Amino acid sequence: xxxxxxxxxxxxxxxxxxxxxxxxxxxxxxxxxxxxxxxxxxxxxxxxxxxxxxxxxxxxxxxxxxxxxxxxxxxxxxxxxxxxxxxxxxxxxxxxxxxxxxxxxxxxxxxxxxxxxxxxxxxxxxxxxxxxxxxxxxxxxxxxxxxxxxxxxxxxxxxxxxxxxxxxxxxxxxxxxxxxxxxxxxxxxxxxxxxxxxxxxxxxxxxxxxxxxxxxxxxxxxxxx
Length: 225
Prior knowledge:
By secondary structure, this protein is α+β, with helices and mostly antiparallel strands. The chain has three domains: 3-78, Dipeptide-binding Protein, Domain 1 (Dipeptide-binding Protein, domain 1), CATH 3.90.76; 89-164, 3-Layer(aba) Sandwich (D-Maltodextrin-Binding Protein, domain 2); 175-225, no CATH class. Helices cover 24% and strands 9% of the residues. The chain contains seven helices and five strands. The protein has helices at 3-14, 32-36, 66-69, 80-86, 142-150, 161-167, 197-206; strands at residues 47-49, 55-57, 103-106, 114-119, 133-137. The chain has a three-stranded antiparallel sheet, with no helix packed on it. A two-stranded antiparallel sheet has the order 1-2. The model has no long low-confidence stretch (mean pLDDT 91). GO terms for molecular function: peptide transmembrane transporter activity. InterPro entries: SBP_5, SBP_5_dom. Its main location: other. It is found in: Cell envelope.
């Protein structure tokens, strides 16, 4: 992996032909919005290589949370060779992905409900990785997952809001801080009134955000309002 893998990845993501649903996250990086809109070339994106392992990123405006964005998967490097080799299958199963982290996917077909994360022997700091294998399973309901946890068939599971309220005093309950944003999106394609930006602004101003049925009411989440 070199700095060029980041440049390729970022350019591929903002390229309109890729149609990435997360391309908007690049907004603020020089020319990103214009590239996504098809008005500028992907080569004009504000990222360039300096040497083999150094990147220089140019922003159009100050972004205080920019360093946090870098931890989001869409900003990770991609191998042009692998993307070309796998084509439309790239990223859709364990065998169509590359790994440079402490673990690698094994056994994920793209639709199955269980797979493994196996220690990556090529990870640069593999001596610090204490686990050899992590088994992941997807359960159809939160109650099924919780019952498996209670039966010692799962080491950990997430809880939904109703379970959190009931079980937060039980042994083993742990809270993890994680930021999240919830929003309502207008369907302007099927409603001529909502297609009017001023109507949408009026509705936004009329909404009592603190009075909405709080998504965090039954959990330990704290709203930023």
